[in-house]
Design a protein that fits this description.
alpha/beta; homodimer; Rossmann fold
């Protein structure tokens, strides 16, 4: 086992292919359905929203999908991202565990999101698209697409969930620095946004609403396409560059993870790190435990139903089978904006249903507490989303101490918290609480799931 | 010449020694004087403020000073920092120049400052110190010392220049995340702060005032020492880890810089990158042009006088010979808080006086414009301080285009701008101007220089 604290891969070892878990699944993913006919949809149905190259990735079952050279060129700026051994944290916890974290905060927007923003912008540009509309929760996805758009010369419009828009004005300025236009959602710029505002003028917004707005803008113009920062198969595919690097870095470390931990909102950060390790479990009989971590206030995998549902609140998307809290479910305005989504990526839901992963939920305050402990020892202030993974990794390390066993723990530090200092300020001022959703509202949202 | 975009050094090649330019200077540095006697001071005079190990580094003329292993252990988390080739920016500028930047934003506080915060905390801890008092301008130094204090178990109190304290509340939360206490300066906690507030209740503060406050706190307690984030010889020494890495990285790149550019406030960021290259010029006959960049609104090297002056506004420090605008000079509240200092590091002033470096000044708006151009192509939003180096590097690349020559340009991207989005927001809103100082005030400040 290496005694280093940082495992860097040479630029020459940047992965050449993404890993497509669809090739290794014991059962295929349930089909995506047309909301009207309830029949499986085909590639052409998605053509108004996405370029065909991305649609083909969405349905591909090839294990290895080549990363285009212009994408690798941009990746090279921050990839391969570092894998760290958290030695000072281990010492502080007095744990025999070996704690590793893959750090995605070194990217242009400070999170894992550019891993898919860059190829999405590339494929859109290649298809002659002029503008991309999208939504953003915490702002990390919008920033990433803004960056990718600026690299490939695409106009970018971002619908930002209102609670984040208000909490994170600097994320907005960041997107504008890259030349994107950022709009608070629900907005007056779409008919769906106007409809929501008419009914709920003080709506906090949600990813589901913002998705509806961006889809509406894209569907209304031939030159405009839509881009999603998570959930879809091709988005998760692009993120696997992260887990592939981690596998190579564990070779450098002369170690292998017993447990892999990542937070889940839409599922792409989780899939990016975990899917290549699930692939190793499936193909090479490895026994790594894979743990998805979500907020107690938006517990899609741990309290949701595995059922067909809409991806958005406005019911403009096809129906996908996923763990869902119901598309009308409105999570409270807690500080991990990237985890406030009613659904879960179909692929993540599927591997959960197949028993290939575990899922746990942690409350907000315990996550901030873990993030601050991590920061004081490792010198990186995590994004509130990433704090969920930090919490679970610390809990696992404490279990190792209690059991007297040394397990190798790998977690995804999916982003830094430099744009989230208001959340930390609120935490220190005692203003944060363990917000909860309304049980009655959840029951109503689940009762409203479409009949399939 | 390598066709790569990123030059990473293996962890094993982390420098083992800092480079002390004092060993290679054609003339020794003028002595530091006692403000009362005007006689050279000795190590003992500094003992109330600093541990002896740092004082000995301050006066050392050994070329190589070993980096203690516990310091290298902490450095390893983010060092060696990457050297980038800015290929997309080159393309956008249509320049034949090869533009390289050393990126210090990967550090725990997002700037070069931890390079000295970590050893300073280490030496203080080793000397049995319990608490460190310091000042901070833009907040990067305070954040860095907060981090270093948390690693070595030291209490940290930070006097933050009021204009930055108000502009950057999140920097404060960041310091608190690392467990430090942050106070707006001028404050009511020191007699000098109370004196300034009595005379100027709405004082913007300045580094000079904040230094006086921190020195007062340190001088008043046996268990408390003072730490400075720039200016002093030992601080500049610690920063040379940056330039030493860059030298090794240019070997990897199979190239060598014709021009080295860095911004200067107190001088440590500049010295960290430039001094090892000046050493190569002096010892190996290299002809690299070295350029210090400062703001037009605080033009210490380009408009100041090379004379003995106090380092602080309260006249508690010894007298040092440096380029100075006068210790009573109050720069306008522009957004590069880290460059708002009336003086300049004696070593930087000395190499300037010896003709070993050039100096230029750029106005604020042109610097932001350059930073945004850089961000849109390179994906990193620079700190406003770093924008000064970006501006000069772009100007040099344009000169290369006009002259039809391909020079290799290296600049120090000393920090990211994630905590400076208010400045970018103001820039986009058209609220930033090219603020200037008052010529009369400068004349008065210079007239008030102490007679030596």
């Amino acid at each position: 086992m290496s005694d280093r604290v940082k495992f860097l891969l040479d630029e020459a070892r940047l992965p050449t292919h993404w890993y497509n878990i669809a090739a290794d699944l014991p059962e295929p993913l349930p089909p995506v359905l047309h909301p009207g006919t309830k029949q499986p949809i085909g590639p052409d149905d998605l053509a108004p929203l996405f370029p065909m190259s991305l649609i083909l990735q969405e349905v591909s079952t090839e294990r290895e999908i080549e990363i285009p050279e212009p994408v690798r060129d941009v990746y090279r700026q921050w990839r391969p991202s570092p894998l760290y051994r958290a030695r000072r944290l281990e010492q502080a916890l007095g744990t025999p565990a070996r704690i590793y974290y893959k750090y995605e905060g070194v990217s242009p927007s400070g999170s894992h999101k550019p891993n898919t923003a860059v190829p999405q912008a590339f494929y859109n540009k290649e298809a002659g698209v002029r503008k991309i509309a999208t939504e953003t929760g915490a702002g990390q996805w919008g920033s990433s697409l803004a960056f990718a758009g600026s690299v490939f010369g695409l106009e970018v419009q971002v619908f930002m969930v209102r609670v984040s828009y208000d909490q994170k004005p600097y994320r907005r300025a960041f997107m504008e620095t890259f030349g994107a236009r950022c709009v608070s959602s629900p907005s007056l710029e779409t008919s769906f946004g106007r409809q929501v505002l008419a009914a709920t003028p003080d709506s906090n917004g949600s990813l589901g609403i913002a998705i509806s707005e961006a889809v509406e803008v894209a569907a209304g113009s031939d030159e405009t396409k839509y881009a999603l920062g998570s959930v879809l198969n091709h988005v998760l595919l692009h993120q696997t560059v992260c887990g592939r690097e981690a596998l190579a870095q564990f070779d450098l470390a002369d170690d292998y993870p017993d447990v892999v931990i990542a937070c889940t909102g839409g599922g792409s950060n989780f899939a990016g790190l975990a899917f290549p390790f699930i692939g190793e479990n499936l193909r090479h009989g490895r026994g790594t435990r894979i743990v998805a971590v979500e907020p107690v206030a938006c517990p899609t995998l741990t309290r949701g139903r595995y059922a067909y549902d809409f991806g958005d609140t406005g019911h403009m998307t096809p129906l996908v089978k996923m763990h869902t809290l119901g598309s009308t479910f409105m999570p409270p305005g807690f500080h991990a904006g990237g985890l406030r989504y009613h659904g879960m990526a179909p692929l993540v839901s599927h591997v959960r249903a197949l028993g290939l992963i575990d899922a746990v939920a942690h409350p907000q305050l315990a996550c901030f507490e873990a993030g601050i402990l991590f920061a004081r020892h490792e010198g990186i202030v995590p994004a509130p989303e990433a704090n969920h993974a930090v919490r679970e990794a610390i809990d696992e390390a404490i279990r190792c101490r209690e059991e007297g066993v040394s397990r190798a723990i790998l977690f995804n530090l999916s982003g830094h918290g430099y744009f989230d200092m208001q959340a930390y300020t609120d935490y220190f001022a005692g203003k944060l609480t363990d917000q909860s959703y309304d049980e009655q509202e959840l029951a109503t949202a689940l009762a409203g799931l479409p009949a399939v």
